[in-house]
Design goal:
- By secondary structure, the chain is mainly α.
- It has six helices and no strands.
- Helix 1 runs antiparallel to helix 2, helix 2 packs across helix 3 and helix 3 packs antiparallel against helix 4.
């Protein structure tokens, strides 16, 4: 029997869904390139950052609970989820790019490349929205 903290995973996925709603609104409002409004850039940074943290935290919870191999990096968490068929190859490729942007948001936070961030969000919002259903489906199939 697996030891999966589904309540914690669901809490993080629900938060991620809220952040994705914000990201979608920011990209739809904007439409034609990067916003110049500081508050919108800050909102985008925070929403993207918490989505990345949710992916990594949920991934680690699943890796621990389903006794998968140990990750060596944040990107490796995504690769393990791909290896275990939680994510498709296409999803994993795009999510790896998103997770790797974490370095910009956390370590280089004084000079986050806004245009790169906006392009990444616009390109990734769909696959980010696929993460929670993929996780929920895998848990339903494997844990019960």
């Amino acid at each position: 029997m697996y030891d999966i903290n589904t309540a914690r995973i669901e809490d993080r996925l629900t938060h991620m869904d809220r952040m994705l709603t914000a990201l979608s609104q920011l990209t739809l409002q904007n439409g034609q390139g990067i916003t110049e409004k500081p508050i919108e850039l800050l909102a985008m940074e925070r929403a993207l950052h918490t989505c990345i943290e949710a992916i990594v935290d949920v991934g680690n919870d699943m890796i621990d609970g389903f006794i998968m191999r140990d990750p060596g990096s944040y990107a490796d968490v995504v690769e393990i989820l791909r290896d275990e068929k939680v994510l498709t190859d296409v999803q994993a490729k795009q999510l790896t790019e998103v997770v790797e942007f974490r370095r910009q948001l956390v370590n280089e936070y004084t000079k986050v490349p806004a245009a790169d961030m906006a392009k990444l969000v616009e390109k990734s919002v769909e696959v980010l929205g696929q993460f929670a259903p993929a996780v929920r489906s895998y848990i339903q199939k494997e844990a019960f």
